[in-house]
Amino acid sequence: MSDIHILGVHQTDFARNLGREGETIADLVQQTVLATLEAAKLGTDAIETIHVGNAFGLSYTGQVHLGAMPATVVDGLWGVPAMRHEGACASSSLAALTAMAELEAGRYDCALVLGVEVEKSVPGADAAAIQAGAAFVGHETEASEMVWPAMFDRIADEHDARYGVDDAHLRAIGRINLENAQSNPLAQTRTWNHDSLSFEPDDIANPIVDGRLRRNDCCQITDGGAGVVLVTDRWLEHNGRRPLARISGWGHRTVGLALEPKLARSAGDPYVLPHVRQTITDAFTSAGVADASALDGIETHAA
C-alpha cells in the first residue's frame, strides 16, 4: 500500500466576507481550486479524483451537490470523479481520509481535496440555529438559543465536577488563540484589538455567551476555503517530484450525537471524552509514534 504525500496546499483569507464582496460559494471554490493547483505546480489534467468537505452549504447558501462545483467553475475538471462529504466540524477531514483511501487502494494517484464554507451570509442568531443542526435536533437543541456554547459549558462543568477547573485557565486558552492569530496573515481575528479586560470576567469587555463561557472563549463563523493535493509514491516516482510532507498516521472514531450519553458512558473513566483520546492514540499507533513527547507541535480544533 502506497504512502500518501502532500504536494501542495492553499488557504484563503478567513477575514473575508464574500457577500460583501459580491461573491458566492462558487467563487470561493474556483479561487481555492486554482490557488491549490498553483501551489502544487499542477494543471487540471493531473487531478484524477476530487473530494469536497462542506458541512452547511444548503443552510447558509441554498447550494447542495458541491461535489460538482469544481467542474462547474474550472473547465479542466469536467468529468473528473468528485464527491462531497459532511461530518460537521470534521467534514474536510473526512474528505481527506476518503481521498487517502482511494489512493491507497490504487484507484487513483493524484487527489484534490477541498474544504469550503460560506457562513457570513446570515445574521448571528440564524447562524447559531443552523450550527445547532450538528447536535441531536429535537433532543438537545431546545434548552438554549446558543447550542454549542451551552454544550461546551456543560463539558466544562463535567470537568469541574470530576477534577476541578479554574476559569482563569479557560480564559487563557482564548487569550492565547486570539493573540496567536495576530501573527497569522490569514486569521479572521488578526486585526482585532484587545485590552486588559478582554479576557477577564468583565460583562462589558467580555460578556457572557452561556454559563461560564464568554465572548472571547468562543470562535466566530467564517467564510473560507482550503485545499490540498495528495499523491502516491507511484505518482512521485513517475513525475520526479518531491512532496511537502508525508501523512504518517491517522485516527477516526465516531460516537452518538447527544452529549449526555457521552458523559454517562465515560463515568468513572479517566477521560471525559475517551473516544477523542482513542482517536489520537489510533493516530499515534498508525504513525509509529510512542506518545506526545515525540511530537514537535499539536494543532487542535477548538470551537
Overview of the structural elements:
With 303 residues, the chain is α/β, with parallel strands linked by helices. It has three domains: 4-121 and 223-247, Peroxisomal Thiolase, Chain A, domain 1, CATH 3.40.47.10; 134-217, no CATH class; 251-303, no CATH class. It has ten helices and eight strands. It has helices at 25-40, 57-61, 69-73, 91-104, 124-131, 147-163, 167-181, 233-239, 259-265, 274-287, and strands spanning 4-11, 49-53, 82-85, 110-117, 208-210, 213-214, 224-232, 245-247. The strands form two sheets. Strands 3-2-4-7-1-8 form a six-stranded mixed beta sheet, sandwiched between helices. A two-stranded antiparallel sheet has the order 5-6. Strand 5 and strand 6 (213-214) form a beta hairpin. It is globular. The protein starts with a strand and ends in a 16-residue tail after the last helix. The model has no long low-confidence stretch (mean pLDDT 95).
Topology:
Elements: E1 4-11, H1 25-40, E2 49-53, H2 57-61, H3 69-73, E3 82-85, H4 91-104, E4 110-117, H5 124-131, H6 147-163, H7 167-181, E5 208-210, E6 213-214, E7 224-232, H8 233-239, E8 245-247, H9 259-265, H10 274-287
Parallel strand pairs: 2-3, 2-4
Antiparallel strand pairs: 1-7, 1-8, 4-7, 5-6
List keywords for this structure.
single chain; 303 residues; alpha/beta; Peroxisomal Thiolase, Chain A, domain 1; 3 domains; six-stranded mixed sheet; 8 strands; globular
